[in-house]
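#lab-general

N.A. 3:47 PM
ok so I finally got the sequence cleaned up, no stray characters, all 113 residues accounted for. can someone with queue access submit it? mine expired

B.Y. 3:52 PM
send it over

N.A. 3:53 PM
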Amino acid sequence: MVNESVIKKLMSSIKCAVCGQRYEEDGIKILGHQEDLWFLGVSCPVCHTRCLAAAVIREDKALKVITDLTEAEQKKFRNVARLTADEVLDMHNFLRNFDGDFSRLLAPSKDGT
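B.Y. 4:20 PM
back already:
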């Protein structure tokens, strides 16, 4: 069954029609639902515009993971720690300055490592 935290997470990916800011989970109130139809009260964190929203959320009972990983690889990576925001930022900074020269990047260093 779909729970309220999932609905709020989905709604937080939507932008305010007035100012374009993404909604925050704290500004989303679940008013109720009837089967797959959810009713929400939403408040923009920037311009404070308030609106009512209705969303149809269908739960797919037969979720299927599409991957090219083998079952052994999936098992190996299942419990690996998630990336931190700092790690993502470090990669972003690296890629922003990366010139695309993989030969130089992957070449052994001068000290032999």
